Amino acid sequence: MNTRGLRRKVAKLLRRLADGLFVEPLASEIHGNQPYSADGWDHIPQDQYDYVPKGKYVYGPVDRFLLVPKNRYRAVLLPNQARSADLGVGWLTEDNSAEGYDLLWGDSSNLLVFKAEGNHAREKLTIEIVDRIGAYLPQSGSVCDIGCGVGDLLREVRRRRPALAVSGLDFSGKAVEGAARAMPDGAFQKFVIHQTLPYETSSFDVVLCTDVLEHLEYPKCIAAELVRICRPGGMVAIVVPDGTGDQFLGHNWFWSEESFAAMLADLGARVSTLPITKELIAVIFRPQATEAQ
User: What is the value of pTM for the model shown?
Assistant: First the structure.
């Protein structure tokens, strides 16, 4: 080997040694495993999330599946970031906390924006739910809304069936206050839903539950609870978003019409899609009690 070739070989060896000694640190080594830092670093730990192509749906608990829409997600507040509706009312409630929903139900300006979103989709949903179940509403008796918000759905029911006694619960204290103001003769209470409901068996003729199950850890348990508190001969109506298009991070479950029907099959639910908002509605009729029962 001549002197020039030897110099080239030595230079190449030295470059390799230098590359090994002066490796640029990884971003995760600089910032650690904290999800966020004050300078805007956003770290998603590898192998802890399932990434789903846009347009697909996720069916399962949030600790196994996470749908992250491109360029639009925030699972927690950044350091020193106040909860605000400036970037959308939905961000107030994305963490599924009572405090977030208090800022929605207890603030008239936030509530107006919320009801106007999607070309007033929430108001249309209320009407089309009652349109769908209206023929089965009794003239008298009682109706309970689980996750009642400020009582919009109950007010639409009461508009068509004025003699019905109304009850409801919500984990937001501001929601309960709003519902009580709207219907002073109703029975409203604050309650955090986990696996049971605070009512006696066969308490109501009609039980409603709209846009609640998708937030819960044990939705099948609560669906059974809805049936339990409904009287024989009564009706349960459960409404959830269509998970094939839903991308809200405040939701733990994303059902299609087929998977929602499968979850409720043991309860005899009839599942269909509402025509305007495209939300899924399951209607369950409790059979009349026999003399033997």
Answer: 0.74
